[in-house]
Design goal:
about 325 residues; mainly alpha; about 0% strand; about 85% helix
């Protein structure tokens, strides 16, 4: 085998190996960021907001029940309808949070416990409503209901705080751009730079040996790695969108945690939840199609390999025939 043909064959082998390695690194790095955008958008963010919505609804329901039971009749009507309405909001929010199952099996058990406690809580409220003739007994039942809701360590609100903390840990993991991702993108960038450099040098080699100014196939192959640039931009945009969504959610949860038991502040938290849901939806709107591009990145490798083979294989065959 001639030296030129041997050199061309060696270059072809190295280029194909480098293509496989670079595209594999790109697939893993790109998916490492974008695969979290869908669960964040459809599950994690709504679940965090659902738990906060349930907490605010329970506080409002408790306040409405107390207002109703302070009347002489003591029936859960008027303000009592507000109690039932807020209780329905809380139960619906918890049902949606359970469907998302962001916190895993421990979160599922925590929600089951909370639902059971809410049943007991409503039982105390109903007992208070039936005890309207005895103010001392009614006060006692309201006290038991209030303690079940607000007990610092084991109350309904405290358990929901713990559940939400677990949800936010999941959110932090989904949005983290940690050192393996940094390393993956650095390696990906280095591999594609090396691939582009070798392709340029190979074109010069082919032009010197075969006295042809341009090899269109190798030239096209040299341009393909430029696709990494928009893919990197898309990754930065998605990471930024996820970071901002996490900040919106953290701010909403902090607003709830800072709110006191006054109805005005709690209602304001409810309004904040709605605006945060809209902000996160807007922020994450374009992440879906960017994530879908991950399925097309292997095609980039096939295209690149085909162009390299198409550019070099005829030259290898041509030199072989000329050398005889």
């Amino acid at each position: 085998m001639s030296g030129t043909r041997r050199s061309l064959t060696r270059r072809l082998t190295v280029l194909l190996a480098l293509t496989v390695t670079a595209v594999s690194a790109l697939v893993m790095s790109y998916a490492g960021v974008h695969r979290s955008s869908a669960p964040l958008r459809t599950d994690t963010a709504p679940a965090v907001l659902d738990v906060t919505a349930a907490q605010t609804a329970l506080v409002l329901a408790n306040s409405a029940a107390r207002d109703s039971l302070r009347t002489e009749q003591g029936e859960l009507v008027g303000a009592g309808s507000a109690y039932r309405s807020q209780l329905a909001v809380a139960n619906n929010s918890l049902a949606r949070a359970a469907q998302s199952n962001v916190a895993g099996e421990s979160g599922r058990r925590a929600l089951q416990t909370v639902v059971g406690l809410i049943t007991s809580y409503t039982g105390w409220i109903e007992q208070a409503g039936r005890s309207r003739a005895d103010s001392r007994l009614r006060t006692a039942y309201l006290y038991y209901a209030d303690r079940m809701l607000t007990r610092p360590d084991s109350g309904i609100l405290a358990r929901l705080d713990a559940l939400q903390a677990e949800q936010r840990r999941t959110l932090d993991r989904q949005t983290a751009f940690d050192w393996p991702l940094w390393l993956g993108w650095i390696v990906t960038g280095g591999l594609f730079l090396a691939l582009a450099g070798l392709l340029i040098e190979t074109q010069r080699f082919v032009r010197r040996r075969f006295r042809r100014r341009v090899n269109p196939w190798l030239l096209s192959a040299t341009l393909v790695p430029l696709v990494v640039v928009p893919l990197t931009v898309f990754t930065v945009q998605t990471q930024s969108d996820m970071d901002r969504s996490r900040e919106h959610l953290a701010r909403t949860v902090s607003t709830w945690q800072r709110a006191d038991s006054s109805r005005t502040e709690v209602v304001a938290v409810g309004d904040t939840i709605k605006s945060t849901a809209e902000e996160v939806g807007t922020q994450m709107r374009n992440t879906g199609w960017r994530a879908d591009l991950a399925g097309w990145t292997p095609v980039l490798g096939l295209l690149l390999a085909a162009l390299i083979v198409r550019g070099l294989q005829p030259r290898i065959a041509e030199y072989r025939y000329e050398s005889r």
